[in-house]
């Protein structure tokens, strides 16, 4: 059997999923306010011996939420730079220590010191170049306004019936 593929990796991946982004297919069998609720619904379907290979969870009305963690200061920037540099330096020192026949501890210490210094330097350069335009740290998260559970038409009706049973259960029984 010969397979023809495009230079962009088209076709299907080994698990049968499309390689390129494609819109989801199927009929809606449930809609939930949170991803956890949608996940719980699919889990219920799986526990009910339903063919969950036909199911897709789709986040609708996507938003990027940036949660501000705190104010940045020179101390916080330099401390974070030193810590991240130290981890990289320890890793580099460990590799050097494994492959160089001169004192393992010396290689580890050298990597640590050089890592801390380079971490400090890169953090200071980056923060000073921002010139106060972004004096806070944050964490970004992609969330949806709702999560729809879709199912292939061949088993959508059965999935809808099972999820209706889940909705009728008391909240303590759904957990």
From TrEMBL:
Keywords: Membrane, Transmembrane, Transmembrane helix
TM region positions: 77-100, 106-127
Pfam families referenced in this protein's UniProt entry, alphabetically: YflT
Matching InterPro entries: GSP17M-like_dom (IPR025889)
Domain General stress protein 17M-like: 29-111
Protein name: DUF4199 domain-containing protein
Organism: Amycolatopsis balhimycina DSM 5908
């Amino acid at each position: 059997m010969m397979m023809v593929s495009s230079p962009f990796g088209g076709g299907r991946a080994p698990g049968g999923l499309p390689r390129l982004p494609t819109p989801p297919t199927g009929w809606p069998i449930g809609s939930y306010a949170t991803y956890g609720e949608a996940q719980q619904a699919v889990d219920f379907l799986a526990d009910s011996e339903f063919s969950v290979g036909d199911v897709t969870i789709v986040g609708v009305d996507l938003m990027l939420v940036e949660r501000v963690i705190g104010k940045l200061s020179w101390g916080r920037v330099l401390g974070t730079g030193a810590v991240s540099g130290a981890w990289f330096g320890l890793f580099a020192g460990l590799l050097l220590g494994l492959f160089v026949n001169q004192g393992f501890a010396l290689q580890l210490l050298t990597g640590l010191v050089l890592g801390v210094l380079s971490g400090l330097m890169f953090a200071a350069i980056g923060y000073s170049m921002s010139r106060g335009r972004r004096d806070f740290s944050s964490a970004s998260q992609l969330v949806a306004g709702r999560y729809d559970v879709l199912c292939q038409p061949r088993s959508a009706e059965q999935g809808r019936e099972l999820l209706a049973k889940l909705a009728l259960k008391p909240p303590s029984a759904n957990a």
